Amino acid sequence: MSVTAPLNAALRRVPIWLLYILAVIPPVWLFVQGLNGRLGVDPVKAMEHQMGLWGLQILIAVLAITPLRTHLGINAIRFRRALGLIGFFYIVLHLLVWLVLDVQIPRQILGDIYKRPYITIGMAALVLMVPLALTSNNLALRKLGPHRWRRLHRATYVILLLGAVHYVMVVRGWQLQPLIYLALVVILLLLRVIPPPKRRLA
Amino acid sequence: MTRWNGDLRQSDITPKSVWLGRRQVLAGMGFAGMAALLPRGAQAEELVPNSFEEITNYNNFYEFGPDKTDPARHAGALRTVPWAVVIDGLVDRPGTYDLGDVIASGPIEERIYRLRCVEGWSMIIPWQGFELGHLLRRVGVQPAARHVRFETLVRPDEMPGQRRGLLDWPYVEGLRLDEAMHPLTLLATGLYDQPMPNQNGAPLRLVVPWKYGFKSIKSIVRITLQAEQPVNTWQAMNAREYGYYANVNPNVSHPRWSQATERPIGGGIFATRRDTVLFNGYGDQVAALYAGMDLARDY
User: Which of A32, A36, A38, A42 would best serve as a mutation to test chain B binding (most B beta carbons within 10 A)?
Assistant: First the structure.
């Protein structure tokens, strides 16, 4: 028996609906904290940045699922759809905070998307996520067929790169944390190309 | 418009008990009450200062780290006693001046200024300080001098941001001589009735209210009078995004941020933006400095 077997057995017992329930808590908590003046001096930016960061983290977890299986033998694939949808939902909230609470003025929003490369890139990532979110259900999978569905969902790779680059560009100057996220995305993509180690049979 | 000058008296300054409590009162009132208290127009006209807590917990001071909360977290380690300022270059009386000596250059006044950050937010800050012009006249500016170059302290042991390559240290800023001599230009030594908090640039910082905040260099250790225009830190870092003049101007868009509007800090999550005003509202006093200049080219 391999060392990952108990972990995989435990993962199989976690109900997927639990993820959706748990995912609602952080944004609601963040909003309530913001309403009550507990997010520091600039609650709008705090909410905007936190939603973006959580979204990116969850989408990086989605990207980690395949290498976890191929390189470590940990099987979390049954959570991938839920995590992908939750990540999308968080990024939509990130966008809504920016639109409604931060920039507010429609003309300025359009100008920002058009003129500011980091916003253009972020918006491109979000737009690319829409067809993936819409086809993250069994009906769409059946209609598209597994081959076409998989090819469509490879857009995830581009989305994660765009998202991480958006984060690198959004900060002033070169800062460490966004670069770590970008490096993580690149490593998780490279692990798909690097052959996994041969697993010994017990 | 005289919002800057001497007709602001001690009685115009919000008493300490009031500003300490303002935030709590607002939080208790909830959003509806806050909106009633700080309507959009009234806030702009009356220059109601932000609370001491807001002003000291939301700072761009990369010497202590890139996040707005880093300075408040890390600036406690900065030692500001003793403090000396080197004044050199094209001056009659160059030398290393003790802080007390520098501060004795002119009367300390209270000035309530709007601070507009290049990132698109603004705060109202009740500074204490004296006009930079008083100091410059005292050390004797030589006729060949055209610009003033300022330098921030470099002390990586006490400034964790300087142990990382965030910017080229020391932080450098500059003003044209006529900008430096303008009566609005302040060397600030405190805010509200407090000595300057470390995270706001203790013990001595520049305040140039018609320019974006990054021009108002903090924790100054050197002032140099020179003929040539200095290269300020952000300009050296990215000349396309940051210029030498950095005058607040809603018509000149920054590659990262539209400058047409700004978010006043302190209004909660539903605060509305206000329109940014040319020269941050100080145009009556300073527009003449730039007569004939193309502000889009000299941004």
Answer: A42
